[in-house]
Amino acid sequence: MKRTTSFSTPLARTALLLSIALLFGCSNQAGSQPESPKPAEATAQKEEKKEPVTLRMVWTGTQQSVEESILNNPIVKEKFAHVTFEYYQTGELEKLIATGVTPDFINVTDSYLPKIEEVGLVGDLNDLLKKSKYDLSKFPSYWIDKLKAFSVKGELWAVPQEVPENANAAVTPYVLVYNKDIFDKFAVPYPTDKMTWDQVIELAKRFNRNDGGTQYRGLQIQNYADVVLAANNPTYITKDDRVDLSGQKWQDHLRILRAAYEANGNWMPFPGQIADWTKEANIAMFAGHAGALILNPQNFPDINWDLATYPIFRDGKLAVPGALGVYVIPSTSKHKELVLEFIKTLQSPEFKASKPDQWKNAVLLTKNAKAYTGIPESLYIASKWDTVVTTILRKKLAEFLISGKDINTTLNETQEEIKKFIDSKKMEQK
Fold it and tell me: Which of 75, 99, 151, 319 is surrounded by the most beta carbons within 10 Å?
């Protein structure tokens, strides 16, 4: 459903005031030429003459959060006073297009790009960015490489949402969080950076015990089916469009999940979010997206925590699951230059300075910054099938953990189910 926020300013009152001022000047300086507007006044008059424009925005956040954090910001209200913003939720995109209405800009995570391509809204932004002297070097190079990888032609369909203070030191909410009190209680050394999954799981085994009527666990993994998988970056569709789960990365993934499940005494909740970990207070470690804790630590004053890097696989390369927020300017928009100007405003130092930087909260500044700074995101490239394939994976991996079925059988069955789904969809599209 369309929701409109307008910042358009009526011109009549301004015109009347200017007329009165001009008449007053003439009555006091008869015969003299009207004084030319000063530069600042000329600029203001020019700003007032901008034609009203409506921009349709598709956003991942709620309308209230968008209005509070962006549209009601004084910088935005002043610079885009002539713009009326129509808000739509991300889930309304396909319905919106079906009615013949296309958005002017879209805010999503990069995994949504294949869906936007499927509905025909992507376009190469390189020429537009060069024309406006938009600086891509302010982003980590691996972010841009990842976005280009979504296009078989290497086109750039979107730009990253956030601009890090340092392109070589971007921050990530994907970390290993540990409860220092639990580690101290059982005299276990704290985890360190660059630990492998195998090392973390060995550490987790030391906490699977009942003490004083409380059952302790070693490790909670957020969304074990697909978040961990994204960090390892396997593929399920080959370049010649075949479904194939025979690679070593798939083997490693299932091996690690089973080891973690057994280390916890056959326990692994799903989806296992950070909020669950903070409530239980009997689990030594959490691996996953910890943004709710590390960006808002004031909400968890009773937890004595610190951080280590997100566990790595046996190849020894640090990588975290990718969830890159992006801005897409659809190829169908008639206001591409204006949208890019809006994006540049949201990414400007002035706009960022007008909002509190959650990554600089007093509590987080006392923690291990190396755990979340300068760590590359996995180059996992989502496909248009991911939404349903993820559902299949979650179901089959849950069965794998509970049933005790072997790895190869599970992968073969999962591969066959994914293949059947994709083949059926391809038949529907013919």
Answer: 319
Interval 13-71: pLDDT, tens:
333 333 333 333 433 433 444 455 555 455 544 445 789 999 999 998 789 989 988 99
For 160, 165, 248, 251, the CA distances from 232, given in Å and listed in that order, are 22, 27, 10, 11
Rounded CA separation 277/280 (Å): 5
368 touches 193 (CB < 8 A): yes
CA 240 to chain centre: 30
Check: CB of residue 352 under 8 Å from CB of residue 377.
Answer: no
Nearest-angstrom CA–CA distance, 170 and 364: 15
Residue by residue, DSSP assigns 113-164 as HHHHHHTT-----HHHHHHTT--GGGS-HHHHHHHHHTSTT----EEES---
What is the pLDDT averaged over residues 259-287?
93
Q: Which of 60, 89, 109, 90 is nearest to 326 (CA)?
A: 109
Which positions ≥6 away from 48 have C-beta within 8 Å? 9, 11, 14
The residue type found at 294 is I
Q: What is the pLDDT of residues 112-125, one digit of tens each?
A: 898 899 889 999 99
User: Can you give the pTM of this predicted structure?
Assistant: 0.80
- In tens, the pLDDT along 25-37 reads 433 433 444 455 5
**pLDDT tens figures, 342-389:** 999 999 999 988 888 888 899 999 999 999 998 888 877 878 788 788
Beta-carbon-side half-sphere exposure of residue 273 (alpha carbons within 13 Å):
4
For residues 41 and 55, give the distance between their C-alpha atoms in angstroms, rounded to a whole number. 27
The pairing of beta strand 214-221 with beta strand 209-211: antiparallel
Single-letter code of the amino acid located at 406: D
| Lowest-confidence region among 80-84, 267-271, 290-294, 387-391 | 387-391
What string of DSSP letters covers 301-341? TT--EEEEEPPB-TT----B----EEEE--TT-S-HHHHHH
Helix (H, G, I), strand (E, B) or coil at 398: helix
Q: Which two tokens stand for residue 109?
A: 């995570």
